[in-house]
UniProtKB/TrEMBL annotation, chains A, B:
Keywords: FAD, Flavoprotein, Oxidoreductase. InterPro entries: Alkyl-DHAP_Synthase, FAD-bd_oxidored_4_C, FAD-bd_PCMH, FAD-bd_PCMH-like_sf, FAD-bd_PCMH_sub1, FAD-bd_PCMH_sub2, FAD-linked_Oxase-like_C, Oxid_FAD_bind_N. Residues 105-291 form the FAD-binding PCMH-type domain. PROSITE patterns: FAD_PCMH. This is FAD-binding oxidoreductase. The keyword Oxidoreductase applies. Coiled coil: none annotated. The keyword Transmembrane helix does not apply. Belongs to the FAD-binding oxidoreductase/transferase type 4 family.
Length: 570, 570
């Protein structure tokens, strides 16, 4: 494994030594017992899996091919090492983690290559295509849609192209607020380099610490502050994408950083979301902002979900422009209160006597209340004014502000959620997420019907399950609902997971939502693509992929299946 | 010609009886004489061309084919009538008007069909594709990029599909702020129907009165208030596109109105800008807004262009969110002052003694000052606050406000500009426009170099020409510059036009701008596409078109040439 690039642990999220702990959260164990019937006191965690137990088929890469790549990137940056191949087999979806922990590695990539610059990427791509090798680009490895794994029946050599060495901020055009950044930069790499010069990208997905700019672009990512900064499609203006070169024609696709353009179907918007199928994204020129003078996240409580959503809808339509609008449903609010630590002021407020007394005086029910976070960014006066505008709307819908305490907590914990999934897996339980965007008029209906569909699925497999949700992003015409679900595995973990996951995805589609708002399609969501964008929409996308990659060398059969094997994905 | 659809006059912009008049604008004739050497007093306009002089080749459509279409849309809604064919031959570009006035109609469509609903569109499309007919969709006919004309050497039957009967507002989802509207609705149709229910689309391109929703989408249009409402790509969420149906598979491509989505390369963003090449847009679901309580456009003067652009750039980066930011360069400011009518208060101010006195006191030069319009929309308090924020920035850059007078004038005159082109053509002179978007860091450089390139081109053809510009749209990371140029024709109108137009387009590309910001590609801009989005970008787009329309039935050879004939366009 190359020394230059740090990966997450092969069997779970994040880095060794960081994890979720419950002993300092007095409400957590009772909550989990009540929600999914798991007694944390009597369910000791399993030990981390041993890498020695993992078996991987021999690499199909010939020594000659490996050596030809070594001559491009250097011998240290091409490898058929077992650990490297396992790390690059999957992303970090629940399905991925269950499989890797159970030594279910049907098809690992045959080799991993770490290019150091765009020219090396071009030469690797050309060598791979010439040898009819499959290329799968790899950023931070945080994908949860199955976008990274080789198909089980792939008989050609599979090359995982790890972009981790290409993580530099190349340049900032300070006059235009545009930064050129290499695609392999992880969130912290990138914000650190920008921050040192007074700038921010403002893109903070849950995966921020372990996901890359190129990965965000390839999967159409959205960050927590996208109400202000936009989704990645809004943020990315310029792009470099390496495609096969041919006699006299450079393989480099260049989209220049134009703010807006009227040059036919948007090739930029074809690259965004392409999950490697159109080529290898090597750099992007992105819209950046000066770090705002003021940045605050405030907490609010609403008497119930409907009131909270009505407020969010009115905020989206109003003149107010908060940077974050987020509200948890009653179940997720209960979860948040349960995961609070004792010592924090806010938690005393919430878990102690203050909140119950307050609610009684308002006639609120503890089982109905919803916790909301709303962020304000910009100049001092702007942030203050936005809060004033929002506070008025919150009040109109019966909500109340509870200050910055919860917002500070939210800010501190916002990137920790993925660790909870490993905590549950260690104890034989599933925890996963799925999200959808929909018009405002469908938000309540979709929310209730997804919860009902999940509960029906839990009943079907005969387990006690849990599902909760928050509205994570809002737009003028709609919002994104983000669902988290959990259950204790029975005898067939992946079979049970499929029943629940499928019920949720189908309910998204049936209730006017997209199959995915910011996690991409990969293999996991591909079965619903036709229901989302219609057969003709899929035909257009398929036509694009087949025309542009006739040899099916670029992450084939992701998003849509090849014509030859439609049954496999659809 | 069907009675249900009104067209612009066949030889020019707009409707009979409306035109540009100079006698009530005392500064205009001297201005024109000085700018392009045309003496309006001694250059009497030519009479409108006579339709009898126009010759069109016989229609290639067989009676059987015409009759098969009549059985779909009704006999009144399919025609091979000469006037109908001529109206549908071209858009309204300068090249189009020169040609049609000179009876240069190389290839008219063979028939025109007016479908009444989506089902009829599907049946027409299927019949046309089965008969290997070329289909060119037609909205308001205002296109200026050559997107509407059949290629001269097209040997197949060409069908112009006029969407003018499909212009209904189908539905408003008031909770989500989304309206379903048929693609053939012209600007006024659409705003009238929305306005009656208290809503607005907020999309006001110069062509507003004679362009359609479907045309805006097909060419990636932008309106004057897009700073607030977004470009058409931002506005359009849902789409219906009719493509050929096949056994068991509907031809209707449906993109549902999702606010944001992560479902692979954006098919929505492939349709936007596709100029008919991917199918026929029949309806769209668009983001609409409640008509704001307040809507004002204020005028400002800046001492010079650089100061004005610096202010616009700072506004774009600030917390302020005006609905319009627009500034004319010194030349266009001179033109605006010259086209003012005597009687208006503002014009007295500008053309009388007030402005000169004021400028003297500030040390400004009349030849340098730049007129700017900035719009504020929303609630009363919001609009007031935005103006306050903007006024502070204007002042910092040495500008000064001159009240609402010029804004009212601007609002009244904003859709009249195209009539000026006919006025000039009637007098043997060219007037045309071309626009580009670029990062802020390139705005001044591009502006100056485009002016220089145009002047060099004027010299080259040995004429006295004129070019002026305004910044028409701004974004966080850049802006759009909109250039207007004019000259008196010599012996070879289109040859001379080509020299100037090419010089301007090439200067866009050479100075970091897009080849087009909101007019599309068509035939007119196709030669620069490769320089704009790179060979690989064009290869991706070409791959898409060829895969999705293998028979080349949908407006072929627009945007990019077919593989078979790359030389023709590129």
């Amino acid at each position: 494994m190359t020394d230059d690039v740090q990966h997450m642990k092969w069997w779970g999220w994040g880095v060794d030594g960081v994890g979720f702990h419950w002993q300092d959260k007095p409400g957590f164990a009772p909550f989990v017992e009540q929600a999914v019937g798991l007694d944390l006191h009597t369910a000791p965690p399993v030990d981390p899996p041993s890498f020695d137990d993992i078996t991987v088929a021999a690499s199909l890469a010939s020594p000659a091919f490996v050596s030809s790549l070594a001559s491009i990137v250097g011998a240290d940056h091409v490898t058929t090492d077992k650990l490297d191949r396992v790390v690059h087999t999957y992303g970090k979806s629940l399905r991925d983690l269950v499989r890797v922990r159970a030594n279910l590695i049907e098809r690992a990539p045959d080799l991993v290559v770490y290019p150091g610059d765009e020219d090396e990427v071009q030469r690797v791509v050309d060598a791979a295509v010439a040898a009819d090798v499959v290329i799968i680009p790899f950023g931070g490895g945080s994908n949860i849609a199955g976008s990274l794994e080789p198909r089980a029946d792939e008989t050609r050599v599979v090359l995982s192209l790890d972009m981790g060495r290409m993580r530099e901020l190349i340049d900032i055009d300070e006059e235009s607020g545009l930064a050129r950044i290499q695609a392999g930069a992880l969130g912290p790499d990138l914000e650190q380099q920008l921050g040192a010069r007074g700038w921010t990208l403002g893109h903070f997905p849950d995966s921020f610490t372990h996901s890359s700019l190129g990965g965000w672009i390839a999967t159409r990512s959205s960050g927590m502050q996208s109400d202000k900064y936009g989704d990645i499609a809004d943020i990315v203006r310029g792009l470099h994408v390496v495609r096969p070169s041919s006699a006299g024609v450079s393989g480099l696709l260049v989209i220049r950083p134009i703010p807006s353009s009227s040059t036919g179907p948007s090739v930029r918007e074809m690259i965004v979301g392409s999950e490697g199928r159109l080529g290898i994204i090597t750099e992007a020129t992105v819209v950046v902002h000066r770090i705002p003078a003021k940045r605050d996240v405030y907490g609010y409580f609403f008497p119930n979900w409907e009131a909270g959503i009505a407020a969010m809808e009115e905020i989206a339509e109003s003149d107010a422009t908060p940077s974050i609008t987020r509200i948890s449903d009653a179940r997720e609010t209960g979860f948040s209160l349960a995961t609070s630590k004792e010592r924090h002021g806010f938690d005393k407020f919430a878990a102690g006597t203050v909140l119950p007394t307050l609610m009684k005086s308002k006639g609120w029910k503890l089982d109905d209340i919803c916790l909301s976070f709303i962020g304000y960014e910009g100049g001092e006066a702007h942030a203050t004014r936005q809060k004033k505008l929002v506070d008025r709307i919150v009040k109109k819908h019966g909500g109340m502000g509870v200050g910055k305490g919860p917002g500070v907590l939210y800010d501190q914990k916002k990137f920790d959620t993925p660790y909870l999934r490993d905590f549950l897996l260690d104890r034989g339980a599933a925890g996963d997420v799925s999200e959808s965007a929909m018009p405002w008029s469908k938000v309540n209906q979709l929310h209730d019907n997804v919860v009902a569909a999940a509960e029906k699925a839990f009943d079907e497999i005969g387990i006690k399950g849990w599902i909760m949700s928050h509205m994570s992003h809002s737009y003028h015409s709609g919002a994104c609902l983000y669902f988290t679900f959990a259950f204790v595995f029975g005898k067939d973990p992946l079979g049970e997971y499929d029943v629940v996951k499928r019920a949720i995805q189908q309910a998204f589609i049936d209730n006017g939502g997209s199959l995915s708002h910011h996690h991409g399609v990969g293999l996991e969501h591909a079965p619903w693509l036709e229901q989302d964008i219609s057969s003709q929409g899929v035909a257009v996308m398929r036509g694009l992929f087949e025309a542009v990659d006739p040899g099916a060398n670029f992450n084939p059969r992701k998003i849509v299946a090849d014509l030859k094997e439609p049954a496999e994905v659809n």
